[in-house]
Amino acid sequence: MKHCRVCGNSLIILHYKNRNMLDFKPFTIADKDIFEKYTHFSGKMNCDLSFTNCYIWNPHARWCIVEGFMVVRFNIDAGEKIGYCEPLGDGDIEKVLALMLKDAHEYSQPLRLFNMSEEFAKKIKESSFSKVLHIYTDRSMYDYVYSAERLRTLPGKELQPKRNHINQFTRLYNYRVEELTKVHYTQVVELLDRWVQEKERTERYQAYFLELENIRRSFEYFDQLALRGIALYVDDKMVAFTYGSAINNTTFDIHIEKADTAYTGVFSMINQQFLQRLPLSYTYVNREEDMGIPGLRKSKMSYHPDVLYPKWYAFEKNTKEWQVWSLWQDVFHDDDAFVSRYLNNYSTKENTFLAEKDGQVVSMVHTPVFYNKYGQVGYVYGVATAVNERKKGLASELLKKALKKMYTRGDVMCALIPSEESVMHWYKKSFSFSEYWQKDKMRFHMDIPFDFGSGVEDKDMGVFRIVNIEKYIRQYALEHLDDTFEVNVVDEVIPENTGCYAVKNGSVFVVKKVGDTQKMDIGDFFEKYSLVDTDFYDEQM
């Protein structure tokens, strides 16, 4: 699966119908010079304005020139949602925004703008589009920009730890530095193989192959992209490499930096060695965003950036999606960055259930898909009803629809994190959720960082419900080969689950009648015959 370097999202190719207004086309290597006419002289330090990032990390992005602007369009998180970058150029911004708005509406989508400069966001606020677009920012997507001279020399007390790391490296190891070229590719892959062995399961499977493919493409077009990099060796073994390309005439972007952490001080060493070989014409270095990952933020802040380069976003108001956004904030009080991250990356028409009154969304239930070791799992999330529409059964009806949809889409079970005890009672009594397993923390492993929990880690205790009894009971039988039992299961919400089942020596039989066995609610069945895995992944392992 590809990921968009513009926003970090995974990508698919969308087959758009022809149109006369915006003639989007794929990026090719031959477009580099044209692209850089719009970016190199913009004065903007945004890492997303690097041609390499658009071409390598966002291979299915489309672009066009219209009304004196370059417009880039991409699709979001492997779905049909489309987003647009800030249009670059000179001319009437209202005219180009109107064309982009119309382009989005052709596909029944709101206009979404990503990674805009503060300057452009201000222009929107001062235009008539301030009534059309909601403007917000996201700290996790700020670029870290440093003085190239400071990274070369590491002066002062605050950078003393970095100098200490470098001194340790030079004292401990016999090292050399080589300019990175295409011939280093095989050794780069070998280093990545060692690097991935240090990572957890989720990082290993979800990030490694993506990054490896992007690195492969980078080396394939290394010279055409004007990439610069170095390789760091200890004796004859590559222990680190890095490379990047220009954003503009004065700002250089570090695309990737990998190192074998078994070598003390290796990251500080590769960083400084590269900067000491970078042309002096580059006065600033962009080390890109932290994506909200705590460890990455700590690492980038430890170099004390000269500029935290803000990025701004826009979302079209007066749309169905905006109504969901507004209801979410009215009920949960989450900030714009949190809501947009969820709606843009995880919400789809298929996993969102809405109730409306007079054309306004008044209740909602979300059911994004995850996976654990037992298969596909639905996660019940963002259950909310407008204050003046509560106690009318709206959320109950939506949750019933959602559970039936989870059954048809193939979920084995579903889970949720109740906000409070009274809510747990509602889920248990009305929908046969079990609180039996409300003791293990749920952990969400995702390529795009997002907190699906309660916001307080100690409260992330999941509760579960069986969605497909036959799939579930077959999993149970495989894990309990010595168990033998017969049971009448009753499910009032998903009637397809109601039936008689017999388990013997790892086999499951669906039978017409089970003697005089007492009927058992599906929630009670789960409590007696429980299978739980609290590690959730957003891709199948």
Characteristics of this structure?
30 strands, eight-stranded mixed sheet, seven-stranded mixed sheet, 27% strand, 541 residues, alpha+beta, 32% helix, disordered N terminus
Level of helix content? Answer: 25-40%
Percentage of residues in DSSP E strands: 25-35%
- Major β-sheet annotation: 8 strands, mixed
Poorly predicted parts: 1-20
- Category from helices, strands and their pairing: alpha+beta
User: In whole angstroms, how far apart are the ends?
Assistant: 14 Å
* Rg calculated over all Cα atoms: 27 Å
What would the principal axes of the Cα set say about the shape?
A: globular
| Overall pLDDT | 90
Number of strands: 30
How many helices? The count is: 17
Task: Give an overview of the whole structure.
The protein has 541 residues and is of the alpha+beta class. 32% of the residues lie in helices and 27% in strands. The protein is built from 17 helices and 30 strands. The strands form seven sheets. Strands 3, 4, 5, 6, 7, 8, 9 and 17 form an eight-stranded mixed β-sheet that branches. A seven-stranded mixed β-sheet has the order 11-12-13-14-15-10-16. Strand 26 and strand 27 form a beta hairpin. Helix 7 (185-197) runs antiparallel to helix 9 and helix 12 packs across helix 13 (336-345). The chain is globular and about 85 Å long. Residues 1-20 have low confidence and may be disordered.
